[in-house]
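User: structure tokens for this one?
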Amino acid sequence: MEESFIKYIGNKCTSCEKAFIKEDDVVVCPDCGSPYHRDCYEKEGKCINTELHKKGGSWAIENKKNNEKLEENELKCPRCGELNPDNTLFCVKCGYPMQVSQEPRPFNDELTKQSNPNATTYNIPPAGIPTQNGIPPQFGVFTQQLNQQTVLDENTIGEYTKYTGSNPLYFLTQFLRFTKMKTKSSVNIMALLFPEFYFFYRKMNKTGIIVMALTILLSIPYVIYMVSEGVFVGITLPAIFANDIKLIGQIASVASILTGIMRVICSFFANYWYYEKAKKEIGECKNQGLSGDQLNQAIASKGGVSSTNVVVAITIYVAIIVGLLIGINYL
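Assistant:
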């Protein structure tokens, strides 16, 4: 192909409508500029773009207008530049997340967001996922285009999006990993730092209660040891513990290790537990015979987040610790 015709690569022949490639012999109509394969033009015997001829138009101008219209309804991947339909969640070429997210995310472990002047936000892959040149390798296994109607373990991506509420892209990325790669582990930083409160925030109340109960139970030896060290002014250690300070210190150390192990487990499996909960509760909403807006509202109500749960959990946690200190003081 001559250098002047390279610009036609990717555009379609006016006759056969096949896209031009580098090896093609391209000719153009001298009047309107419509491109053809040489064989196609010779076969037609003349330019068949009669509509353009009638209005005295130019193929180049019309083609530019059409491309601009297409781009208005498409999203350009910020990583590879590929154009994607506007409802696509992940780039069809490289798998990079395309979904817009503007909601506040106080309890999540996503590291970064990038914003442009139009307030469109693209999220980078979350922590704990290995990358190659910044691209998560697992996205290479996705051969179909992903959109709101894509089914993921009996529920659509759109339904999971409604369920997660805030920060849907991060969770969809994890959910896709669980189904496509058959793995159950990931890394959730907030579940490592504040596991019980994170679970309450995500309405995983049963898990939150279990983790908070274990946290309080494992903190008792440490609280007793801190009292013996005089950390809490005005609270004295009961005589029954006076001869066992060294043992209590050792128990407190073991309890701290167990607490750390519990936090790591929560961090590794919090996202999978949340996925299982989402899958179950979305299914329950469907089994109620709901559809349309009613189904969407039911899913959103079941899922989402709850700051109230966190406030209540913190209040109960502090009350129990204070009660423990008062109890120690009166023993």
